[in-house]
Amino acid sequence: MTEKRLINADVVDVNQLMPLKYHWAWEHYLNGNRNHWQPQEVPMGRDVATWKGGDLSPAERRVILRNLGFFSTAESLVANNIVLAIFRHVTNPECRQYLLRQAFEEAIHTHCFHYIVESLGLDGEEIFTMHREVNTIAGKDEFDMALTAELMDSDFNTQTVEGAQKFVENLVGFYVIMEGIFFYSGFAMMLSFHRQNRMTGIGQQFQYILRDESTHLNFGIDLINGIVAENPRVWTPELRARLSAKIERAVELEIAYAEDCLPHGILGLNAGLFRDYVQHIADRRLERIGLPVRYGSPNPFPWMSEAIDLKKEKNFFETTVTEYQSSAALSWD
Ligand SMILES: [Fe+2]
Ligand SMILES: [Fe+2]
């Protein structure tokens, strides 16, 4: 058998999983399977009553609509990037097994936003075109779409140092920036409603998504660090400077997005807190991929780290009863 490598092994080899070499990839895969969920399991009745009643201010509605607009399409960009850009170049079977699981989760997430829009009777045309119509959303999306496009060039490969560096840049752009920074002010906004016991159906869906996304982020960081460890020549001072600059630019885009969602502050949140929060999480991401921290900002939302670990939310799973079809429950007649 050819030696297992994260990149630059045979692209079309049989996916021979065992023996595992990258146990972390398999663990992330099992972890993803343990967290399986579906949007329709979450009851939306209370949210519908709140949305249609007079309980939400125009500013609160704006936050909800902007985030539905951003996430509904951003999820599809992540899925596209896995299928069109990452899968071909990650040549390790256990990582590919994880990528298949992640791609399915991104489909669930896209589905989730359609389910919410439909449940609340929102204007789909308005929500699903925000990626074009709202500048601060378009800015974030274009930033990541450019990274997918670079890898779709038919000449692209990871055999050269330059190619492998571009690939690492794509992984940082999606795992660290899109799923690790661009998603997080939206998570904090939507979970703030949940903390006030309002729009709890949406809150619960965002909590499921946040749990999935934190696994995606952890896989991405292991993959990036693994590729760099196996290919130390890619980790040049130039690449490090380029990645740091990209993350800095992403922080500005994310702060602009938060300001646009919350021009006047609601829910005890305001744009200044988001500046700190986005800078705080950017520092955490930088240190995990071995880059110097940049901001030193405090974390204004310490409750977010609790929200990531759902086990701490005692009653979370008691709101719905879920029964999965087991093979015994399937009928063949
Ligand atoms: Fe997602
Ligand atoms: Fe994701």
UniProtKB/TrEMBL annotation:
CDD domains: RNRR2
Record has Electron transport as a keyword: no
EC code(s) of this entry: 1.17.4.1
Amino acids binding Fe cation 2: 106, 179, 213, 216
Cofactor(s) needed by this chain: Fe cation
InterPro entries: Ferritin-like_SF (IPR009078), RNR-like (IPR012348), RNR_small (IPR033909), RNR_small_fam (IPR000358)
Domain of life the protein comes from: Bacteria
Reaction catalysis annotation: a 2'-deoxyribonucleoside 5'-diphosphate + [thioredoxin]-disulfide + H2O = a ribonucleoside 5'-diphosphate + [thioredoxin]-dithiol
Keyword check for Metal-binding: yes
Transmembrane segments: 172-193
GO biological process: deoxyribonucleotide biosynthetic process
Role summary: Provides the precursors necessary for DNA synthesis. Catalyzes the biosynthesis of deoxyribonucleotides from the corresponding ribonucleotides.
Protein name as catalogued: Ribonucleoside-diphosphate reductase subunit beta
